[in-house]
Amino acid sequence: MALPQLIPSHSSSSLTHQPSINPYPIFKPFLKPSSLSQSRRFHRLNSLRCSASSFPDNHHTEPPKSDDVVELPIFPLPLVLFPGAILPLQIFEFRYRIMMHTLLHTDLRFGVIYSDSVTGTADVGCVGEIVKHERLVDDRFFLICKGQERFRITNVVRTKPYLVAEVNWLEDRPSGSEDLDGLANEVESYMKDVIRLSNRLNGKQEKETLDLRRNLFPTPFSFFVGSTFEGAPREQQALLELEDTATRLKREKETLRNTLNYLSAASAVKDVFPSS
């Protein structure tokens, strides 16, 4: 289950991003400026289409406990993949078909990294693991990938025929005395209120929102929340890069609270001026 999509602030000219069908209406968020990494630009993809879908149930995957540097093939995309999220992809450009042939005979894992024409390419991304694939007669591929651990690029190994980089794994630091469960419950409460008001403003029947946490621990829940901010990839990237669960949940709570204030004002205007 996902929150309403965020209205995109911009789109990439080199990729077509097709958000998945969302059961909730679109709303306009109030987002504080995100602090994205300004790293050197990698090559751009010109013919890879992708779409993002909602976070799966009962996700709780721990990142590897290793400081070893590993090599990983990299996909720069105009979207952000979170641990536990599902990403459908269609692959038809030649160099990425080469990558798929390699991956399907090895460990089925590659790195997804956010890139756009304004901010360049980030150096923090998320591993996508191929869980289903279909190869067509024209050698195109349809893939279903699942987000796994996060990583930071430390060195570019090569750029042809596709990008390969050395990466280190990232995991959240201990949050000390922070009440993570309490924070997660607050975030869930704001999510429910945002969904309720969005439905009202879009003329949909108001009904009780189901359990959004679904027994998720605070860290994977914070990734789930980030994955619902589909129309704001720079904010998503800022959330992905944070290495503290409490800080991530607090930032998400602030975004949801600001959005709720906007929706409340819009709802009040609609009550006074029903035809507006």
Automatic annotation (TrEMBL):
Residues 232-266 form a coiled coil. It comes from the Eukaryota. The keyword Transport does not apply. InterPro entries: Lon_prtase_N (IPR003111), Lon_prtase_N_sf (IPR046336), PUA-like_sf (IPR015947). Keywords: Coiled coil. Pfam families: LON_substr_bdg (PF02190). Residues 69-260 form the Lon N-terminal domain. This is Lon N-terminal domain-containing protein. It comes from Hibiscus sabdariffa. The lineage of its organism: Eukaryota, Viridiplantae, Streptophyta, Embryophyta, Tracheophyta.
